[in-house]
Amino acid sequence: MRVLITGTAGFIGFHLARRLLADGCDVTGIDGMTDYYDVRLKKARHAILKAESRFTECLLMLEDMPGLTQAAKAAEPAVIVHLAAQAGVRYSLENPRAYLDSNLTGTFNVLEIAREMHLGHLLIASTSSIYGDNTSMPFRETDRADHPITFYAATKKSTELMSHAYSHLWGVPTTALRFFTVYGPWGRPDMALFKFVEAISEDRPVEVYNHGDMARDFTYVDDIVEAVVRLVRAIPERGRPAPGADDSLSPVAPWRAVNVGCGAPVQLTAFIDEIERVMGRKARRELMPMQPGDVVATFADWRLLEALTGYRPSTSIAEGVGAFWSWYQEFCPREPQ
Protein backbone atom coordinates (compact mmCIF):
# COMPACT_ATOMS: atom_id res chain seq x y z
CA MET A 1 0.00 0.00 0.00
CA ARG A 2 1.15 3.53 -0.78
CA VAL A 3 0.51 6.02 2.02
CA LEU A 4 1.10 9.76 2.15
CA ILE A 5 1.59 11.14 5.66
CA THR A 6 1.80 14.84 6.46
CA GLY A 7 3.90 15.69 9.50
CA THR A 8 6.37 12.76 9.42
CA ALA A 9 9.01 14.77 11.30
CA GLY A 10 6.46 15.25 14.06
CA PHE A 11 5.88 13.00 17.03
CA ILE A 12 2.94 10.85 15.92
CA GLY A 13 3.75 11.05 12.21
CA PHE A 14 7.26 9.71 12.79
CA HIS A 15 6.01 6.71 14.77
CA LEU A 16 3.24 5.98 12.28
CA ALA A 17 5.63 6.16 9.33
CA ARG A 18 8.07 3.76 11.04
CA ARG A 19 5.27 1.28 11.66
CA LEU A 20 3.92 1.42 8.11
CA LEU A 21 7.41 1.05 6.66
CA ALA A 22 7.95 -1.98 8.89
CA ASP A 23 4.67 -3.38 7.55
CA GLY A 24 5.98 -3.07 3.98
CA CYS A 25 4.16 0.08 2.88
CA ASP A 26 5.59 2.76 0.65
CA VAL A 27 5.46 6.00 2.61
CA THR A 28 5.78 9.54 1.32
CA GLY A 29 6.38 11.92 4.21
CA ILE A 30 5.67 15.64 3.99
CA ASP A 31 7.00 18.06 6.59
CA GLY A 32 7.82 21.75 6.75
CA MET A 33 10.36 21.46 9.59
CA THR A 34 8.92 24.49 11.36
CA ASP A 35 10.82 25.80 14.39
CA TYR A 36 7.97 25.64 16.92
CA TYR A 37 10.37 23.41 18.84
CA ASP A 38 13.96 22.25 18.30
CA VAL A 39 14.31 21.31 14.63
CA ARG A 40 17.20 18.99 15.51
CA LEU A 41 14.69 16.59 17.03
CA LYS A 42 12.60 16.66 13.84
CA LYS A 43 15.67 16.08 11.67
CA ALA A 44 16.73 13.16 13.86
CA ARG A 45 13.32 11.54 13.37
CA HIS A 46 13.48 12.01 9.61
CA ALA A 47 17.02 10.65 9.47
CA ILE A 48 15.72 7.35 10.82
CA LEU A 49 12.91 7.27 8.27
CA LYS A 50 15.22 8.14 5.37
CA ALA A 51 17.31 5.05 6.14
CA GLU A 52 14.37 3.02 4.77
CA SER A 53 14.28 2.63 0.99
CA ARG A 54 10.46 2.75 0.93
CA PHE A 55 10.40 6.25 2.46
CA THR A 56 10.30 9.39 0.31
CA GLU A 57 10.97 12.72 2.02
CA CYS A 58 9.24 15.89 0.81
CA LEU A 59 10.21 19.07 2.65
CA LEU A 60 7.48 21.64 2.08
CA MET A 61 4.78 23.58 3.85
CA LEU A 62 1.16 22.55 3.37
CA GLU A 63 0.37 26.12 2.34
CA ASP A 64 2.49 25.45 -0.77
CA MET A 65 -0.26 24.07 -2.99
CA PRO A 66 1.88 23.54 -6.13
CA GLY A 67 4.51 21.66 -4.10
CA LEU A 68 1.89 19.61 -2.28
CA THR A 69 0.17 18.71 -5.55
CA GLN A 70 3.45 17.61 -7.13
CA ALA A 71 4.35 15.45 -4.12
CA ALA A 72 0.92 13.82 -4.01
CA LYS A 73 0.90 13.04 -7.74
CA ALA A 74 4.33 11.44 -7.47
CA ALA A 75 3.26 9.39 -4.43
CA GLU A 76 -0.04 8.15 -5.91
CA PRO A 77 -1.31 7.21 -2.43
CA ALA A 78 -4.28 5.00 -1.69
CA VAL A 79 -4.48 6.59 1.76
CA ILE A 80 -3.56 10.00 3.18
CA VAL A 81 -3.01 10.44 6.91
CA HIS A 82 -3.02 14.16 7.60
CA LEU A 83 -1.19 14.77 10.89
CA ALA A 84 0.71 17.99 10.17
CA ALA A 85 -0.58 20.97 12.15
CA GLN A 86 0.47 23.80 14.39
CA ALA A 87 0.19 22.07 17.75
CA GLY A 88 0.04 23.34 21.31
CA VAL A 89 -2.83 24.77 23.30
CA ARG A 90 -0.96 27.56 25.08
CA TYR A 91 1.00 28.69 22.02
CA SER A 92 -2.30 29.43 20.28
CA LEU A 93 -2.76 32.27 22.78
CA GLU A 94 0.53 33.82 21.63
CA ASN A 95 0.52 33.18 17.88
CA PRO A 96 -2.97 32.35 16.61
CA ARG A 97 -2.09 33.17 13.00
CA ALA A 98 0.21 30.14 12.85
CA TYR A 99 -2.85 27.98 13.53
CA LEU A 100 -4.89 29.78 10.89
CA ASP A 101 -2.22 29.23 8.22
CA SER A 102 -1.23 25.66 9.04
CA ASN A 103 -4.40 24.09 10.39
CA LEU A 104 -7.01 25.74 8.16
CA THR A 105 -5.22 26.65 4.93
CA GLY A 106 -3.01 23.56 5.10
CA THR A 107 -5.97 21.25 5.70
CA PHE A 108 -7.95 22.89 2.90
CA ASN A 109 -5.11 22.09 0.52
CA VAL A 110 -5.00 18.48 1.68
CA LEU A 111 -8.77 18.21 1.14
CA GLU A 112 -8.38 19.54 -2.38
CA ILE A 113 -5.72 16.90 -3.06
CA ALA A 114 -7.96 14.17 -1.63
CA ARG A 115 -10.86 15.29 -3.81
CA GLU A 116 -8.79 15.28 -6.97
CA MET A 117 -7.13 11.91 -6.30
CA HIS A 118 -10.29 9.89 -5.48
CA LEU A 119 -8.69 8.50 -2.33
CA GLY A 120 -9.60 5.22 -0.74
CA HIS A 121 -9.45 6.79 2.75
CA LEU A 122 -8.46 10.13 4.29
CA LEU A 123 -7.62 10.20 7.99
CA ILE A 124 -7.10 13.59 9.67
CA ALA A 125 -5.76 14.38 13.12
CA SER A 126 -8.19 16.04 15.47
CA THR A 127 -7.95 16.38 19.25
CA SER A 128 -9.72 15.86 22.54
CA SER A 129 -9.47 19.64 22.94
CA ILE A 130 -12.53 20.07 20.73
CA TYR A 131 -14.69 18.84 23.63
CA GLY A 132 -13.82 22.06 25.44
CA ASP A 133 -14.71 22.24 29.12
CA ASN A 134 -17.25 19.43 28.79
CA THR A 135 -18.11 18.04 32.23
CA SER A 136 -19.96 14.97 30.95
CA MET A 137 -17.51 12.08 31.23
CA PRO A 138 -16.31 10.12 29.36
CA PHE A 139 -16.22 12.20 26.18
CA ARG A 140 -18.27 10.48 23.48
CA GLU A 141 -17.91 11.11 19.77
CA THR A 142 -21.63 11.92 19.58
CA ASP A 143 -21.39 14.61 22.29
CA ARG A 144 -21.83 18.22 21.21
CA ALA A 145 -18.44 19.82 20.67
CA ASP A 146 -19.48 23.33 19.78
CA HIS A 147 -17.75 25.35 22.51
CA PRO A 148 -13.95 25.18 22.05
CA ILE A 149 -12.08 27.30 24.59
CA THR A 150 -8.86 27.87 22.62
CA PHE A 151 -8.17 28.92 19.06
CA TYR A 152 -6.20 25.68 18.61
CA ALA A 153 -9.31 23.66 19.43
CA ALA A 154 -11.43 25.91 17.23
CA THR A 155 -9.17 25.26 14.23
CA LYS A 156 -9.28 21.51 14.83
CA LYS A 157 -13.07 21.52 15.07
CA SER A 158 -13.10 23.58 11.88
CA THR A 159 -10.98 21.00 10.07
CA GLU A 160 -13.50 18.33 11.08
CA LEU A 161 -16.33 20.40 9.62
CA MET A 162 -14.37 21.19 6.46
CA SER A 163 -13.55 17.52 5.90
CA HIS A 164 -17.18 16.55 6.49
CA ALA A 165 -18.32 18.97 3.79
CA TYR A 166 -15.77 17.55 1.33
CA SER A 167 -16.76 14.01 2.27
CA HIS A 168 -20.40 14.81 1.53
CA LEU A 169 -19.77 16.72 -1.69
CA TRP A 170 -17.08 14.54 -3.21
CA GLY A 171 -17.56 11.17 -1.52
CA VAL A 172 -14.12 11.09 0.14
CA PRO A 173 -14.22 8.47 2.95
CA THR A 174 -12.87 10.36 5.97
CA THR A 175 -12.07 9.56 9.58
CA ALA A 176 -11.29 12.31 12.11
CA LEU A 177 -8.90 11.02 14.77
CA ARG A 178 -9.54 12.63 18.15
CA PHE A 179 -6.25 12.01 19.96
CA PHE A 180 -6.04 12.18 23.76
CA THR A 181 -2.75 13.42 25.36
CA VAL A 182 -0.23 11.34 23.45
CA TYR A 183 3.11 10.62 25.14
CA GLY A 184 6.14 8.39 24.69
CA PRO A 185 9.66 8.28 23.20
CA TRP A 186 10.51 10.99 20.65
CA GLY A 187 7.75 13.15 22.16
CA ARG A 188 7.44 16.91 21.81
CA PRO A 189 9.50 19.09 24.20
CA ASP A 190 6.48 21.32 24.91
CA MET A 191 4.40 18.46 26.33
CA ALA A 192 4.08 17.60 30.01
CA LEU A 193 6.18 14.44 30.20
CA PHE A 194 9.16 15.91 28.34
CA LYS A 195 8.99 19.15 30.34
CA PHE A 196 8.71 17.34 33.69
CA VAL A 197 11.57 14.93 32.98
CA GLU A 198 13.80 17.74 31.71
CA ALA A 199 13.07 19.93 34.75
CA ILE A 200 13.72 17.12 37.22
CA SER A 201 16.95 16.18 35.40
CA GLU A 202 18.16 19.77 35.67
CA ASP A 203 16.87 20.23 39.24
CA ARG A 204 14.45 22.94 38.17
CA PRO A 205 10.94 23.36 39.58
CA VAL A 206 8.13 21.45 37.91
CA GLU A 207 5.15 23.72 37.26
CA VAL A 208 1.99 21.95 38.45
CA TYR A 209 -1.08 23.76 37.14
CA ASN A 210 -4.37 24.05 39.02
CA HIS A 211 -2.39 22.91 42.07
CA GLY A 212 -2.38 19.39 40.64
CA ASP A 213 -6.15 19.07 40.53
CA MET A 214 -6.17 17.94 36.90
CA ALA A 215 -6.52 14.61 35.11
CA ARG A 216 -5.50 13.59 31.60
CA ASP A 217 -6.26 10.54 29.51
CA PHE A 218 -2.59 9.85 28.74
CA THR A 219 -2.30 7.56 25.71
CA TYR A 220 0.97 5.89 24.75
CA VAL A 221 2.17 6.58 21.23
CA ASP A 222 2.42 2.91 20.21
CA ASP A 223 -1.25 2.51 21.14
CA ILE A 224 -2.07 5.54 19.01
CA VAL A 225 -0.22 4.06 16.04
CA GLU A 226 -1.86 0.65 16.41
CA ALA A 227 -5.27 2.29 16.48
CA VAL A 228 -4.55 4.41 13.39
CA VAL A 229 -3.20 1.45 11.42
CA ARG A 230 -6.37 -0.49 12.18
CA LEU A 231 -8.61 2.47 11.42
CA VAL A 232 -7.05 2.76 7.95
CA ARG A 233 -9.01 -0.40 7.14
CA ALA A 234 -12.20 0.78 8.89
CA ILE A 235 -13.42 2.86 5.95
CA PRO A 236 -16.61 4.82 6.69
CA GLU A 237 -19.61 3.94 4.53
CA ARG A 238 -22.92 5.80 4.57
CA GLY A 239 -25.69 3.77 6.14
CA ARG A 240 -23.33 1.20 7.70
CA PRO A 241 -22.75 2.16 11.36
CA ALA A 242 -20.47 0.09 13.58
CA PRO A 243 -22.42 -2.63 15.42
CA GLY A 244 -22.55 -2.46 19.20
CA ALA A 245 -21.45 1.16 19.53
CA ASP A 246 -22.89 4.67 19.44
CA ASP A 247 -21.40 5.56 16.06
CA SER A 248 -20.58 9.11 14.98
CA LEU A 249 -21.05 8.11 11.32
CA SER A 250 -22.57 10.99 9.38
CA PRO A 251 -26.08 10.50 7.95
CA VAL A 252 -25.07 12.37 4.79
CA ALA A 253 -21.41 11.45 4.17
CA PRO A 254 -18.88 8.60 4.52
CA TRP A 255 -17.40 10.41 7.52
CA ARG A 256 -16.94 9.69 11.20
CA ALA A 257 -14.96 10.88 14.22
CA VAL A 258 -13.22 8.38 16.50
CA ASN A 259 -11.73 8.91 19.96
CA VAL A 260 -8.23 7.46 20.28
CA GLY A 261 -7.55 7.31 24.01
CA CYS A 262 -7.13 4.88 26.89
CA GLY A 263 -10.29 5.77 28.73
CA ALA A 264 -8.33 5.84 31.99
CA PRO A 265 -7.63 9.41 33.22
CA VAL A 266 -4.63 9.85 35.51
CA GLN A 267 -4.33 12.62 38.08
CA LEU A 268 -1.47 14.99 37.33
CA THR A 269 0.01 14.42 40.79
CA ALA A 270 -0.02 10.65 40.23
CA PHE A 271 1.64 11.14 36.84
CA ILE A 272 4.46 13.10 38.49
CA ASP A 273 4.71 10.43 41.20
CA GLU A 274 5.35 7.83 38.49
CA ILE A 275 7.98 10.01 36.81
CA GLU A 276 9.75 10.39 40.16
CA ARG A 277 9.66 6.61 40.69
CA VAL A 278 11.08 5.84 37.24
CA MET A 279 13.80 8.50 37.47
CA GLY A 280 14.65 7.79 41.09
CA ARG A 281 14.54 11.51 41.87
CA LYS A 282 12.07 13.85 43.52
CA ALA A 283 10.50 16.77 41.70
CA ARG A 284 10.48 20.25 43.15
CA ARG A 285 6.80 20.93 42.61
CA GLU A 286 5.73 24.53 42.09
CA LEU A 287 1.96 24.74 42.46
CA MET A 288 0.41 27.11 39.93
CA PRO A 289 -3.12 28.35 39.14
CA MET A 290 -5.12 27.06 36.19
CA GLN A 291 -3.84 28.40 32.88
CA PRO A 292 -6.05 30.00 30.21
CA GLY A 293 -7.32 27.37 27.80
CA ASP A 294 -6.73 24.44 30.18
CA VAL A 295 -9.46 22.01 31.20
CA VAL A 296 -9.72 20.09 34.45
CA ALA A 297 -9.98 16.64 32.90
CA THR A 298 -10.10 14.62 29.68
CA PHE A 299 -11.60 11.14 29.46
CA ALA A 300 -12.10 9.15 26.24
CA ASP A 301 -14.95 6.79 25.56
CA TRP A 302 -13.10 4.07 23.60
CA ARG A 303 -16.08 1.87 22.68
CA LEU A 304 -16.41 3.06 19.07
CA LEU A 305 -12.69 2.48 18.45
CA GLU A 306 -13.01 -1.05 19.79
CA ALA A 307 -16.16 -1.74 17.76
CA LEU A 308 -14.41 -0.64 14.56
CA THR A 309 -11.01 -2.24 15.13
CA GLY A 310 -11.25 -4.79 17.94
CA TYR A 311 -8.57 -2.77 19.72
CA ARG A 312 -8.36 -0.60 22.81
CA PRO A 313 -5.23 1.27 24.04
CA SER A 314 -3.90 -0.41 27.17
CA THR A 315 -0.26 0.57 27.83
CA SER A 316 0.16 1.44 31.51
CA ILE A 317 1.57 4.74 32.69
CA ALA A 318 4.44 2.86 34.37
CA GLU A 319 5.41 1.17 31.11
CA GLY A 320 5.00 4.30 28.99
CA VAL A 321 6.89 6.65 31.31
CA GLY A 322 9.64 4.06 31.67
CA ALA A 323 10.03 3.81 27.90
CA PHE A 324 10.22 7.59 27.58
CA TRP A 325 12.85 7.85 30.33
CA SER A 326 15.00 5.18 28.62
CA TRP A 327 14.81 7.08 25.33
CA TYR A 328 15.44 10.46 26.99
CA GLN A 329 18.67 9.27 28.66
CA GLU A 330 19.99 8.13 25.29
CA PHE A 331 18.84 11.06 23.18
CA CYS A 332 19.16 13.92 25.69
CA PRO A 333 22.18 13.02 27.87
CA ARG A 334 23.01 15.39 30.70
CA GLU A 335 26.15 15.81 32.75
CA PRO A 336 25.89 14.05 36.13
CA GLN A 337 24.50 16.35 38.84
Polypeptide structure, described:
The protein is α/β, with parallel strands linked by helices. Strand 1, helix 1 and strand 2 form a beta-alpha-beta unit. The protein has 2 domains: about 220 residues, NAD(P)-binding Rossmann-like Domain (Rossmann fold, 3-Layer(aba) Sandwich); about 80 residues, Alpha-Beta Complex (UDP-galactose 4-epimerase, domain 1). Strands 3-2-1-4-5-6-11 form a 7-stranded parallel β-sheet, with helices on both faces. The protein has 11 helices and 13 strands. The mean pLDDT is about 95.
**Beta-strand level of the residues, as a percent range?**
15-25%
Which residues sit in consecutive blocks of at least 5 with pLDDT less than 50?
A: none
What is the overall number of helices? Answer: 11
Q: Strand count, sense and closure of the main sheet?
A: 7 strands, parallel
Per DSSP E runs of 2 or more residues, the count of β-strands stands at 13
Average pLDDT figure: 94
Spatial gap, N to C terminus: 49 Å
What is the number of domains?
Answer: 2
Structural class: alpha/beta
Radius of gyration: 19 Å
Instruction: Tell me the CATH topology of the largest domain.
Output: Rossmann fold
CATH uppermost class of the largest domain:
Alpha Beta
